[in-house]
Amino acid sequence: MRADIAYPEALALQSLVWNVAWSDLTEDICGVEVMPITPLHFVRLAAARSPFVCGGREPNMADVGNFLWCLSPLYDPHSKWKKFCHWLCYYRAVRKLTLADLVSGIDEYMDEAWQDAPPKPEGKGRASAFYSPVVSLMHVLCPAYNMTPDMVKRMPYKQVFQLYKPIAEALNLPVTAPAQIALWRERAKAREAVA
Amino acid sequence: MSIQYPTVPLVTPSGSSYNDTGSVYGAGSVTFTSGGSQTCDCTDFNPEYTSTKKVQKDKNGVPVRQFALPEIPTGSFNMIVASNSTQIPAPGWTFTCTQTGTMSWLVDKVGTPFKQEDFLILPISFSQKIN
After folding, report:
1. Which residue range(s) make up the domain with A176?
2. Overall number of domains in chain A
3. For residue A123, is it within any domain?
4. Residues near A145 by beta carbon (within 8 Å), at least 6 away in sequence
5. In a domain, A23, yes or no
6. Which of A85, A110, A180, B131 has the greatest number of beta carbons closer than 10 A?
7. How far apart are CA A50 and CA A43, in angstroms?
8. Burial class (CB in 10 A: 0-12, 13-18, 19+), A110
9. Widest CA span of chain A, in angstroms?
10. Quick check: A120 and B114 CB within 8 A?
11. Is some CB atom of chain A closer than 8 A to the CB atom of B29?
12. How far apart are CA A40 and CA A16, in angstroms?
């Protein structure tokens, strides 16, 4: 969620995102229809070293195109027809847009998807990884909800993060809501202004 | 600053003075009175006022009366500070919380900090400060 967003707006947006996450709808990035991002999309993009998930460099038009193709409801590497249909929609939508517009649209989409991501322990991370980050999600969600790893892999992050919250609550781990963060920001600013 | 926080979600803030006792999301605030001096937000402030049962028995071991003996109140909460804050509470610091008025509490333990965007969430266990 944007840092400059006011608390009432944050509340409305939070509620919208939470509900839409469960309504089986597709989303939109700059006029291009996309699926809600799932761990499967994440690992595909990470495998392709997309700067939208790996960072490290500024994205270019090819990165934007690959990102939108990977998340397209038409995504099917074996079907030339679907690929053609996607690129037709893509070029129609983006012909009047700049790279900056597209990158900002993707950033907004990613921020929204990660709005309910759990707080991370500060300074206690492992020095090296032993498996893909999606395995941690499977490890937590599968036993709690009687899910299979494949179900977790295909579940939108917006749903995954909401499902994680009751588990974290039961373990006495801190749970936050996106609007709560907007509220803390407002209160911190108000306190600074008073001081 | 002119914000008053509503207690009902989706109600636009209004008012003419800064009110730091909002209960939105149970968002009270704590103010350190010794050790540090900052005021910061907190969540899940849960004081527990427990008591133990004491049974008075006669010489034959038959229960005659029972009492509830109050224990020192304890609890936990999550303290919210800016991630670049230099004042991190330590055991022994005392504080008051908006939810318990003037009652003074003592920090017993500070758990692993969690980072969420530009904030640190510090799990704190506390007990009542007995004078």
Report:
1. 7-116+130-194
2. 1
3. no
4. A163
5. yes
6. A180
7. 10
8. middle
9. 63
10. yes
11. yes
12. 24
All residues of chain B having their beta carbon less than 8 Å from the beta carbon of residue A110 are none
Asked whether the beta carbons of residue A174 and residue B113 sit closer than 8 angstroms, the reply is no
Name the residue with tokens 């995102």.
Answer: A17
Is A124 within the bounds of a domain? no
Condensed to tens digits (0 to 9), the pLDDT of residues A35-61 reads 999 999 999 999 999 999 998 889 999
- Subunit contact B27:A173, Cβ cutoff 8 A: no
How far is the C-alpha of A81 from the C-alpha of A74, rounded, in Å?
A: 9
Query: DSSP for A82-140?
Result: HHHHHHHHHHHHHTT--HHHHHHHHHHHHHHHTTTPPPEETT---SS-SS-HHHHHHHH
Domain boundaries, chain B: 24-128
pTM over 0.90: no
Contact B81/A at CB under 8 A: no
Which residues, 6+ apart, have CB-to-CB distance to B51 below 8 Å? B68, B69, B70, B71
Which pairing describes strands B114-116 and A120-121: parallel, antiparallel, or unpaired?
antiparallel
* Tokens coding B81: 């500070």
What are the tens digits of pLDDT across the range B62-106? 888 887 777 788 889 999 998 888 888 999 999 998 888 888 899
Residue A1 lies in a domain: no
H or E stretch at A29: strand A27-29
In sequence order, what are the beta bridge partners of B115? A120, B120
Residue A116 CA to residue B75 CA, distance in Å, equals 26
Is A189 in Cβ contact with B82 (below 8 Å)? no
